[in-house]
Amino acid sequence: MHPSQAPAQPGRDLRLHLPDPAATDRVGAALGLALRPGDAVLLRGGLGAGKSALARAAIAARLARSGAVEDIPSPTWTLAQIYEAEGGQIWHADLYRLGAPEEAFELGLTEAFETAVCFVEWPERLGALLPARALDAALEFDGEGRSLAIAAHGEGWAEALAALAAAA
């Protein structure tokens, strides 16, 4: 069983209500600032669920900490956008159009899992190439905004989970 399919562990899961776009931005920014190189966030949810919005807010916060302001487009057509920030690279991958998991090697994504902060939309397209250590973030509409369910896989996520809980 892959870690992203493993049963939840007490104290390693978090469910947040995001009533509006400002809440999504606030939680995304807190997440972005709490991550370190080698951290991956697997963003799950249907079309329009808020995966890109959460990733953009996180990336913008990391870039702002470096003094950079950049346009953060969706990587739907390029598959991956790479940003340079204080502390290393940030990868934002949208794998919706990925033809086969092996294409992630060509992108360099599997190497980035070890050295960069990575946000991956449609991570199920990676199959067995999913990183063992990741935050699994599932977004969905709940009738009054969005819900964000976070499951931590691997060690070292206490700071990020605390930052998310405080931002909500």
Automatic annotation (TrEMBL):
* PANTHER family xrefs: TRNA THREONYLCARBAMOYLADENOSINE BIOSYNTHESIS PROTEIN TSAE
Say if the entry is tagged with keyword Zinc-finger: no
Q: Which family does it belong to?
A: Belongs to the TsaE family.
Q: GO annotations under biological process?
A: tRNA threonylcarbamoyladenosine modification
User: Out of the domains of life, which is the source?
Assistant: Bacteria
- Locations listed in the record: Cytoplasm
UniProt cross-references to InterPro entries, sorted A to Z: P-loop_NTPase, T6A_TsaE
Question: What UniProt keywords apply to this chain's record, in alphabetical order?
Answer: ATP-binding, Cytoplasm, Magnesium, Metal-binding, Nucleotide-binding, tRNA processing
Keyword S-adenosyl-L-methionine present in the record's keywords: the answer is no
Predominant cellular place of this UniProt entry's protein: cytoplasm
Q: Kindly give the NCBIfam families that the UniProt entry links to this protein.
A: T6A_YjeE
Kindly name one Pfam family recorded for this protein. TsaE
Task: Quote a single Gene Ontology cellular component term.
Answer: cytoplasm
Protein name as it appears in the record:
tRNA threonylcarbamoyladenosine biosynthesis protein TsaE
The Gene Ontology terms for molecular function here are: ATP binding; metal ion binding
